[in-house]
Design brief:
The complex is a heterodimer. Chain A is α/β, with parallel strands linked by helices. Helices cover 40% and strands 15% of the residues of chain A. Chain B has an 8-stranded antiparallel barrel with strand order 1-4-5-7-8-9-11-12. In chain B, a hairpin with a 2-residue loop joins strand 4 and strand 5. The two termini of chain B are 25 Å apart. The chains are: A alpha/beta, B mainly beta.
Chain lengths: 186, 178
């Protein structure tokens, strides 16, 4: 089973990328998590550019999502909402709506922020946006507030409660993915 | 004819299949300041003297915008991938003249709930090709959230954009099976 991890933060030392790595540690052996690193190269959405073939970075993103069994997105929060570059990537993915690769795809959203609330508003907005694209959004969340204090120098998530929540979210995502496989096979 | 119509106490005898071209199974609900309507194009139904059953394919949901149709089929609404059909099966039918009351089970998004449908049933009419036809019009109201269709969008006022109470209507046009 393949899970595609998307970090909404472009920063090399991103807490949200660390959160994806923490999730990777919790996955059973039959699940692989690939962290997608192409977010910065996705151009701004322009309907005039939304043609065949799509820009290379967009095509790569669409292919990565289509190939994955499930998606795990870790988002920071910019001005109480989803970072523009992440929203832009989802806008590219969403077109055309009826056949886009997020459609029916199990997706879980988690988030980390340096502030107290752990990107809860960005996560909520992202779930709404993903629902509008037709994704199968998992009803679970992890809000890593005060992120610099939650990871050690090696980037390991060191808060037991958050680790437990992250594991529950990952399990919910895998359960939804398994349920989808069963439904499609029947 | 009027006397005959008023004295009917049962559905017509025999087995009847739906003429989907002349039938409509649709829904409507308040949205913002108006009404949002849609219908299912791929439907089937069967009428016998003991009851009515039918189904509609979610993939055939027909609204006036393809993006809305895609959203209605997604997990936010009907979740067509996991629940490709809506269905109804009657349990009890009462006919009083042209009026009909049908009690039965409605299944939407995998959730089955009892509903009561009310409406009318026509007399039997022979068409120009010798086929017997009868129409049944039924309607009811359901709370979509009881079936797991919970999507909404808050307006600036804080009020929800989309109502929970949904009117369901079925204009069913049947042809007697040979």
């Amino acid at each position: 089973m393949q899970v595609l991890g998307i970090s909404g933060s472009l920063r090399r030392d991103s807490y949200n990328t660390k959160l994806l790595r923490a999730a990777e540690e919790l996955l059973p052996s039959f699940v692989e998590l690939e962290v997608w690193d192409g977010l910065k190269s996705v151009p701004p959405y322009d309907e005039e550019d939304d043609v065949q073939p799509a820009p290379a970075a967009v095509e790569a993103l669409r292919q990565a999502v289509a190939n994955a069994d499930a998606i795990l997105i870790a988002t920071p929060e910019y001005n109480s909402s989803v970072p523009g570059q992440l929203k832009n990537a989802i806008d590219w993915l969403s077109r055309p709506l009826a056949t886009n690769p997020l459609r029916n795809k199990p997706v879980a959203v988690v988030g980390a922020s340096t502030g107290a609330f752990g990107a809860v508003w960005a996560q909520a907005e992202l779930r709404k946006v993903l629902g509008a694209t037709g994704a199968r959004v998992v009803d679970a969340d992890v809000a890593v507030g005060h992120a610099p204090t939650r990871f050690d120098a090696q980037g390991t998530l060191v808060d037991d409660d958050l680790c437990e929540q992250l594991e529950e979210t990952v399990q919910a995502l895998l359960a939804e993915t398994g349920a989808r496989r069963l439904a499609l096979a029947s | 004819m009027a006397v005959l119509t008023e004295s009917r106490t049962a559905l017509p005898t025999g087995t009847w299949t739906l003429d989907p071209v002349h039938s409509t199974i649709g829904f409507e609900l308040p949205y913002l300041a108006g009404t949002f309507r849609g219908q299912f194009k791929d439907v089937d139904a069967r009428l016998t003297e003991t009851g009515i059953e039918g189904a509609a394919r979610v993939a055939s949901v027909d609204v006036k915008d393809e993006n809305l149709s895609a959203h209605l089929q997604s997990p936010d609404f009907f979740d067509a991938e996991r629940h490709p059909e809506l269905s109804f099966a009657s349990r009890e039918v009462e006919v009083a003249g042209e009026n009909v009351t049908v009690r039965g089970e409605l299944t939407i998004r995998g959730t089955t709930k009892p509903v009561v449908l009310t409406g009318t049933v026509s007399g039997v009419v022979a068409d120009a090709y010798g086929n017997d036809r009868v129409s049944v019009n039924l309607a009811t109201t359901v709370d979509r959230t009881e079936f797991g269709l919970n999507w909404n969008m808050p307006l600036p006022s804080g009020e929800p954009a989309l109502a929970n109470e949904v009117g369901l209507n079925a204009e069913l046009y049947f042809v007697r099976e040979a």
